[in-house]
Specification:
The complex is a heterodimer.
Chain A (H helix, E strand, L loop, with lengths): L1 H36 L21 H9 L2 H32 L5 H11 L4 H14 L7 H9 L2 H12 L3 H9 L4 H12 L1 H17 L2 H6 L8 H6 L9 H36 L1
Helix pairs in contact in A: 1-13, 2-13, 3-6, 3-7, 3-10, 8-9, 10-13
Chain B lengths: L1 H24 L3 E8 L5 H14 L3 E8 L3 H13 L6 E4 L1 H9 L7 H7 L7 H6 L9 E2 L3 E8 H7 L14 H11 L9 E3 L5 H10 L17 H15 L7 H6 L2 H6 L3 E7 L3 H4 L7 E4 L6 E4 L2 E4 L6 H11 L2 H9 L9 H6 L10 H10 L3 E3 L6 H16 L5 H16 L1
Parallel strand pairs in B: 1-2, 1-3, 6-7, 9-11
Antiparallel strand pairs in B: 3-10, 4-10, 5-7, 5-8, 5-9
The chains are: A mainly alpha, B alpha/beta.
Chain lengths: 279, 420
């Protein structure tokens, strides 16, 4: 008995060592970013490399906010990412509910077509979409960053449909007998049952929109409308870069996502498992 | 349904009418100038645009900054051009000029340059170098050439005389290797090297121009990268690393970049461009200088202002581009250390004190002279793809896995099929 316990303990110790090793590998780039953001520009490439700088240059952060309109970039990104997330959750879950629970002609064909759109690479639709949005007068506005992402999230529809399909029909049938309409069933019965899936999708969506670089780059022209990735990128010059400021700006840009993750971590991990098993 | 259609028709017509009235009232021509640039560069660019707007009542330039690098900028430009709404004026890297020009997306400026610009004010060689099939598609923003940076402290310590500043009496390659040997010292991790052998064809090229060779034939139809002189230079670089031990290996250059080694006093000589000077100046406890490339020839990179063929306001755009290289604008560029060597010769000579600090005067003058000894790389419309192929082979040479002759023969063969 005694021997067995030590063996498990040993196993755990080895396991933990492995985990610590990989955790360090994952965290190191992040650590390096934070460390660089507190260094002077001359000591960024010091050799041998130093993780904890001799002097903490917090002034880098002040300089980042003085030099550029970081705040407007943050606000733009918060606006776009949150509207997109709320919008996507609403419209994608509506469509997913219909595909999962309502019987109508061609529902499978339509779903197949929807899934097929996920196979088209973004580069193919980039220019046609640009021409359409430009003719709508949406160039240099936030609309092209929001409308397609809210209304045409095939991945979201797919993920939620699989989740809705796993909920027994008995729930909606009994609600129907009690006099619920379709929207009421969707809103009061179905949605509360799939909160984990919704949170996962919402997080994925928020992060994708937050990090999106190419679409804002193509559609936006005025600095006041730039999202945070574009603002961060402008700390890099064409043939040189101020690495410590660039890293300080990256830390600022990353902070909201980390905070969001801390609050939703529980759902996030179970959500990945949902996606892994059902998706 | 019909009523709705009629309403929409009326709406679009009235909007169209309103738009045309607006443009008739407004006599100022608005020019869009799209620029890829970081924040530190913006005061300079905004400066020349503001100066232009102050002096002109009939044309107004709007500057649009795009963050990122050339790749992102080219992607945005391609989209804008495909959508039929390119900017009027843009900044264009010399490596992308042929690509856009060959598709007819850049306005031909040859005649305008001949009519409107007095060549005696400018570095004429730069205008010669940027021609594509004899035509000019852009106006130089400034000139970057490659020179040899050398660590003066290491030269002093080894008791070696500083190199000559005369482009016509540089070291020969043999003398250069001899000096690099004398500058090499130490062992293992502490070893100091004489020279950094750069196998990237775009960086090895000044030495190759010194040997009167080039990567392509003049008509850009055939590769000459396996020319005997080029093979001998790549052989020499391989020897410098593996048999002479006077240059760091590719692996060593991975852990510490060549500029970092140079700044740390572990590399005595480095062939590179003026664009490195802001980085080299971030460290101030060493002394460095700049000298001509051994062989007395070099290459240049001349980024340009271009006018897009799709622009409807080419005349006004030309006024803008022309004024960007006049003395006023060029002085603003120098004030903000933008663009390398000014294309305007008078400004370059008048402002020599302010250019290329901390170099002494004779080295600054050597920089200006480099323009006349420089030649452009033979950029083709598919230059980036060509370089992707060649870099695979030159990497193999640098890793000592292939001889220069074998690798460059194979590279030439692949290039030829891509040039057909």
């Amino acid at each position: 008995m005694h021997k067995k316990i030590t063996r498990t303990q040993l196993l755990h110790a080895v396991l933990h060592l492995c985990l610590i090793f990989f955790a360090f590998g994952t965290l190191f780039p992040f650590l390096w970013m934070v460390s660089t953001s507190l260094k002077g520009n001359a000591s960024v490439f010091e050799y041998p490399p130093v993780i904890i700088p001799k002097e903490f240059l917090w002034s880098n952060y002040a300089e980042v906010f003085q030099k550029q309109d970081m705040l407007s970039g943050l606000l733009n990104s918060v606006k776009i990412a949150s509207i997109n997330t709320v919008g996507t959750l609403f419209f994608a879950s509506l469509a997913a509910y219909a595909f999962a629970k309502l019987k109508f002609r061609f529902s499978n064909t339509l779903f197949m077509i929807l899934i097929a759109t996920m196979m088209i690479p973004g580069q193919v639709t980039l220019i046609p979409m640009f021409i359409i949005f430009k003719n709508l007068g949406w160039y240099d506005t936030h609309m092209p960053l929001m409308i397609p992402s809210i209304l045409c999230n095939a991945y979201g529809v797919f993920l939620l449909r699989q989740f809705f399909a796993s909920i027994p029909d008995a729930y909606s049938d009994s609600a129907h007998i009690d006099g619920c309409g379709r929207f009421r069933i969707y809103w009061s019965i179905m949605l509360p049952l799939c909160v984990p899936a919704l949170v996962t999708l919402g997080l994925f969506n928020f992060m994708a929109n937050w990090n999106n670089f190419l679409t804002p780059l193509i559609y936006l022209n005025s600095y006041s409308k730039y999202t945070i990735p574009l603002v961060v990128m402008s700390f890099k010059n064409l043939y040189s870069a101020n690495w410590s400021l660039l890293m300080a700006a990256s830390c600022v840009a990353l902070a909201p996502v980390i905070v969001l993750y801390m609050f939703t971590q529980r759902y996030f991990i179970s959500g990945i498992m949902i996606g892994g098993i059902k998706g | 349904m019909k009523r709705l259609l009629a309403f929409l028709l009326a709406l679009t017509m009235s909007l169209g009418l309103a738009a045309s009235f607006a443009s008739a009232d407004d006599e100022v021509v608005d020019i869009h100038f799209l620029l890829v640039a970081g924040n530190d560069e913006m005061p300079g660019w905004q400066g020349i645009v503001d100066a232009f707007n102050e002096d002109h009542t009939d044309i107004h330039v709007t500057l649009e900054q795009l963050p990122g690098g050339w790749a992102e900028y080219i992607q945005k430009l391609t989209t804008l051009i495909a959508a039929g709404s390119p900017p009027d004026v843009g900044r264009m890297g010399v490596a992308y000029m042929a690509q856009f020009a060959s598709k007819g997306q850049l306005a031909d400026l040859t005649e305008l340059v001949e009519q409107d610009l007095d060549m005696s004010n400018y570095y004429e060689n730069a205008f010669e170098q940027i021609k594509i099939d004899g035509k000019i598609y852009g106006i130089p923003i400034g000139i970057y050439t490659m020179i040899m940076f050398y660590n003066k402290d290491m030269f002093d310590a080894a008791g070696i005389e500083y190199p000559s500043m005369n482009w016509d009496s540089t070291w020969t390659l043999d003398e250069f290797v001899e000096i690099a040997k004398q500058l090499t010292s130490g062992e293992g991790l502490e070893k100091n090297y004489g020279f950094y052998a750069n196998f990237d064809p775009e960086r090895a090229v000044p030495f190759i121009y010194g040997m009167d060779a080039d990567y392509l034939t003049a008509d850009h139809k055939t590769s000459t990268i396996n020319d005997a002189a080029i093979v001998s230079y790549y052989n020499l670089m391989q020897e410098m690393i593996y048999s002479l031990g006077i240059a760091p290996t590719a692996a060593q250059a991975e852990t510490m970049s060549s500029t970092q080694m140079f700044m740390a006093g572990r590399l005595a000589m480095l062939g590179d461009g003026q664009w490195q000077m802001p980085s080299l100046n971030t460290e101030d406890d060493y002394n460095y200088g700049a000298a001509p490339i051994p062989g007395g020839r070099t290459n240049n990179f001349i980024d340009q202002y271009v006018i897009f063929e799709g622009s409807t306001k080419k005349e006004a755009a030309w006024e803008v581009v022309k004024s960007f290289i006049d003395e006023k604008a060029e002085n603003i560029m120098v004030d903000n250390s933008l663009g390398g060597i000014p294309i305007n010769k008078n400004v370059a000579q008048d402002r020599i004190e302010d250019l290329f600090d901390p170099l002494p005067m004779d080295e600054k003058l050597m920089m200006l002279e480099s323009v006349d000894y420089s030649k452009s790389l033979p950029f083709t419309a598919n230059w980036a793809e060509l370089m992707d192929v060649v870099n695979v082979y030159t990497d193999l040479i640098s890793l000592n896995e292939m001889s220069a002759q074998e690798a460059l023969d194979a590279a030439a063969e692949e290039m030829d099929t891509m040039l057909k």
